[in-house]
Amino acid sequence: MNIEQKTEALLCVAKAFYDRGRYIQYDQRSLDRILQLTPRPRKFLPPEAATPDNTTFLDCSGFVNAMYYQAFGVELPADLTWHMIDYVKPQIFYYELTHKETPEDMKEIEENVLSFLLPGDVITLDRGVGNGHTMLYLGNGEYTDCTVNGRPNSYDYENKKSREYAEGGLWRQPLASLFISGSRKSLFKENVRRFAVARPLELMGEPTKETLARMTTAKDLFCGVLTNFPGGRQATYGESVVYTVFVRNQSFMEKTAKVTFQMPGGKQEAKELHLSPRGRETAVFSVVAEQTAGFRLAAPTVTVNGLHIYVPEVLVGQGLDAAAMQKLTETVVDKMQGGKTAMQAAAEAYEAYGVSMSGDEKEHFNNCFYLHDSTGGDVVSRKPQNPGADLGVLTYFGGIGTVTPEFAIKDGVRCYKISTRDLLPGDVLLVSDDANGKTTYSSFYTGKQLVGRFCPEESVSKLSRAETDAYVDSLFGRFSFILLRPVNGKR
Questions:
Q1: Is residue 141 domain-shared with residue 284, that is, in the same domain?
Q2: How many structural domains comprise the chain?
Q3: Does one domain contain both 61 and 194?
Q4: 3-state SS track over the chain
Q5: Same domain flag for 277 and 292
Q6: Does the predicted TM-score (pTM) go above 0.90?
Q7: Do residues 54 and 182 share a domain?
Q8: pLDDT digit string (tens) for 263-286?
């Protein structure tokens, strides 16, 4: 495959990412919005993973890595900007600024770069102290990047609240702006130490099968999968899990889409959708959540015109019927009003249903996390997840002091976002402000609001719906949290 065909493949993937709009957000501190010092596993996710139910968080280098990985199945040798400038090869231009450059010098550098720049080239600048920016040149005088583009960062760690934007985090910008000394991302800005241009496209092999499908059979199709149990919601054993495959025709010509659906070890189903110009259609499939699934239903294989579409895993569990949950909730709230913590009250109430859990907040926290000391201060890491024993909802934990070693190489180990809709009646939120679990506090979700303690010094209180939403959103800015779902306990 020649360089022109490789370029076409890369730009096809870039467009697929760009088309996801608001479902891809930028985060400056960490692409998962939880740990400020995290690796970047989301670069391994395809564009189709970004849906209304599954916001994808990337930063500038994660985005460039994602485009190359999805197009060719190859990881770039670095995913941090201050490493990329040295390790992404072949490097075809490098410049260290003296900040004594005259306008004439800047013009000469610009003309030099423009004379050889090709679509697919990676432009990286280094601002020092672990800071920089990286972009992909698209051709026709434009580059693309993932950034807040002058807005406040998408998660406010200081005030513990999120900011997400309708425009999303991906942008197309005029290349000329990089060479204007006063522009925000200027290569000549006073805080830029050096910049480089690399051409990794030369080292790439054949495009992936998925990329070839995006270029041919699935061209101009915008696809994704939604479920009736998104995020932290959970199907009870025996319930139907519904997968809705949506396909939108982005062209002005009629198209036909063949959708296939197959559960692991199951028979394949197929449905054909006829799409009008700019039209949207859906194909619906359902399966029963069997107890043999454990606590997570394996994702089915879904294709649209030969393109494999990312499907989120669905949580499953035992659950209580509505009447039992109502009674349990009333019991827990009454016990808290009598002075017990949410953990103590929940432990006593769930015991009547054969569920055993610790009512000691610190003990339960230490049962869920390992303690580590580091030069940057103590941190904790999640112990192997076992919902039947520690009651933790799969992947739903995090905080700015929580690390996960396997997270460096595996996606889906922990959540990227949590909101009130991820909670179920009977859930308990356990939070700690330190690595030893000394400042722990817990709250209980009634199905409408959280009741409990929301900082170590406080007594039990009830939050309004709006306050509940704000508190759940604040979890990413706290030291560590874990979502507990006692109904998953053995009984």
A1: no
A2: 3
A3: yes
A4: CCHHHHHHHHHHHHHHHHCCHHHEEECCCCCCCCCCCCCCHHHHCCHHHCECCECEEECHHHHHHHHHHHHHCCCCCCCCHHHHHHHCCCEEEEEECCCCCCHHHHHHHHHHHHHHCCCCCEEEEEEECCEEEEEEEEECCEEEEECCCCCCCCEECCCCEECCCCCCCEEEEEHHHHHCCCCCCCCCCCCCCEEEEECHHHHCCCCCHHHHHHHCCCCCEEEEEEECCCCCCEEECCCEEEEEEEEEECCCCCEEEEEEEECCCCCCEEEEEEECCCCEEEEEEEEECCHHHCCEECCCEEEECCEEECCCCEEEECCCCHHHHHHHHHHHHHHHHCCCCHHHHHHHHHHCCCCCCCCCHHHHHHHHEEEECCCCCCEEEECCCCHHHHCEEEEEEECCCEECHHHHCCCCCCCCCCCHHHCCCCCEEEEECCCCCCCEEEEEECCCCEEECCCCCCCCEECCHHHHHHHHHHHHHCCEEEEECHHHCCC
A5: yes
A6: yes
A7: yes
A8: 998 999 999 999 999 999 999 999
